[in-house]
Amino acid sequence: MSAKYGSSRSKTDALIEEGTFNPTADKVRDPKFSGSEFFDPQDAVQVRYEMLRRVSVDRASVTEVSVEYGVSRPTYYQAKANFDAAGIAGLVPAKPGPRGPHKIDDDVLAFLEAHLVPGEPVRARELAKLLRRDLDIDLHPRTIERALKKTRR
Predict the structure, then answer these.
(1) Cβ distance 141 to 127 under 8 Å?
(2) Can you give the pLDDT at residue 89?
(3) In sequence order, what are the residues at sequence separation of 6 or more whose Cβ sits closer than 8 angstroms to the Cβ of residue 60?
């Protein structure tokens, strides 16, 4: 591996750590990705960019390119939409998981705010206990702090 990634960290480790590792690298059939030091089928961003380039610049069909890169046509179109919206950054795979606190709706937030004492710091541990006792909702104190911080801006 390149010295750029250091002796203790391989390029594969870096890609995994950054969330840009392509788990389906074995499905990439574009010849430039086989045996090349530059083109890396494990680099999801590079693979998606080259896939889009093949259609845009080389005028290959979406169906042909989808087979060549081992993705579905909807995956191609999603990558294209992401690229059109955000450029190369749009090709970075989205992080999995919830996009915010899914247990805190308007009612829970109102409950929390009703139990705040004006002028005093947020006592998230006490609020978590009240939530558990009164609403049977289990929330981590740090989640409560974050939610209340957003509403106080």
Answers:
(1) yes
(2) 93
(3) 54, 68
